[in-house]
Design goal:
This protein is an alpha+beta fold and about 100 residues long. The chain has a domain of about 70 residues: Dodecin subunit-like (2-Layer Sandwich). Helix content is about 35%, strand content about 25%. It has a five-stranded mixed β-sheet, covered by helices on one side. The longest helix is centred in the first third of the chain and has 21 residues.
Length: about 100
C-alpha cells in the first residue's frame, strides 16, 4: 500500500514538473548562424560559461544583418570555443561570447 502511494505521489510530482516546463511561455529555440547560437535580448536556459565580450566594429550600412555578421566574425576570431552570442541590448553594440557547460 505504501509503495503504491509513493509511486502515485512520485508520478504526480513528475507530471506537474513536466507540465510546468512545457507550459513556460518564455522557452524558445535559438537560431544558429555560422555554428553559433544567437540570443538577442534573451539568455539560454542551459548552464553556460561566460568567455568574454566583444564590442561593435564599424558597419558600412548599419543594417542589423551586417552588424550581426561582423560580431559573429569577431567572436569566432577572439573566442574560437564559443557556442553562442548573447546580445543584451537592441543596439547590438556589445555581445557576450558563451560556451555551454558539459553535463
Amino acid at each position: 500500500m505504501k509503495t503504491k502511494l509513493f509511486i502515485g505521489l512520485f508520478l504526480t510530482v513528475i507530471l506537474l514538473t513536466a507540465f510546468t516546463v512545457i507550459s513556460d511561455k518564455s522557452t524558445a529555440i535559438a537560431d544558429q548562424k555560422e555554428g553559433l547560437y544567437i540570443f538577442l535580448l534573451s539568455k539560454p536556459t542551459t548552464e553556460y560559461e561566460y568567455l568574454g565580450s566583444v564590442k561593435k566594429v564599424l558597419a558600412w550600412s548599419g543594417k542589423p544583418e551586417e552588424m550581426l555578421n561582423s560580431m559573429i566574425k569577431k567572436v569566432k576570431k577572439e573566442y574560437p570555443k564559443a557556442d553562442g552570442i548573447v546580445f543584451t541590448n537592441i543596439d547590438m553594440d556589445k555581445a557576450d561570447a558563451i560556451q555551454f557547460k558539459e553535463k
